[in-house]
Amino acid sequence: MEHQTIVEALLLGLLEGFTEFIPVSSTGHLLLAGHFLGFESTGKAFEVLIQLGAILAILSVYFGRLWKIATSLPSDPGARRFVFGILLAFLPAAVIGFLAHDFIKTVLFESPMLICVMLIVGGVVLLGVDRLALTPKYRNVTDYPLPVYLGIGFFQCLAMIPGTSRSGATIVGALLMGADKRSAAEFSFFLAMPTMAGAFTLDLIKNRDVLSAADLPIIGVGFVAAFIAGVFVVRHLLDYVSRHGFGLFAWWRLIVGTVGLVSLLIWG
Q: Does the UniProt entry include the keyword Translocase (predicted)?
């Protein structure tokens, strides 16, 4: 990797951890911050590989619940149905992400202007959906009907456009299909695990020939920072959205997108 420092990797890792699980687009924030900092990673691998820290943050916070689900799979049809639902939701992104990986990384990831526009558009959508008088039908992530799991999976595919937000797309999809705000946010946690693990694995395979030992310290610092920040967010987000909804994150998107857009128009 060229033109980066440990401090920049630390800041970007913290940014990844704090934004991965809230509907503001962690990838969009990372790419914009990297653009303005002049941070360039080999094959844009840093931005994807440090997500492993965020994955481990979910695993650490949800370990007890995940272990309970895993051990009850042989005897509990509900547990098997829930795991199948997560895999069903993961399937669309797995197929489209595999087929479009190179286009996403070489074209969409290189478009700061597109990221800013999508931050703004997503902020407007999130603000509108948050204010809709929706009547929740599902309050537990394990009780979603199978078509709802699949539908959320298709919504998640929108996040392949940087600036859209994976968690934002899944949360909006879940809300529109009848989930309450808390379970919509929680399901985005569960769906993040196979989705981010898949993206991590695919990116590692794609970049295995261009990454070197010199890249490891930068990625390692970003990974640890993302893990610490991710644990904090996962522990506190559900209670926050249960009480306050997603309005704060919608305005966050609008402000960051607008400031980024103006900065790009002025300074490039």
A: no
List pLDDT tens digits, range 111-156.
889 999 999 999 999 999 999 989 999 999 999 999 999 999 999 9
Where in the sequence is the domain holding 59, given as residue range(s)? 6-267
Helix axes 181-206 and 166-176, enclosed angle (nearest 10): 140
Give the chain's domain count: 1
Asked, for residue 150, whether it belongs to a domain, the answer is yes
The answer to the question of residue 46 being in a domain is yes
Task: Find all residues with CB under 8 Å of 95, minimum gap 6, and list them.
Answer: none
Which tens digits make up the pLDDT trace of 59-76? Answer: 999 999 999 999 999 999
Q: What is the pLDDT of residues 217-231, one digit of tens each?
A: 888 899 999 999 999
One DSSP character per residue, 163-227 reads: TS-HHHHHHHHHHHTTB-HHHHHHHHHHHHHHHHHHHHHHHHHHTTTT--GGGHHHHHHHHHHHH
Query: Which residues sit opposite 138 in a β-bridge?
Result: 179
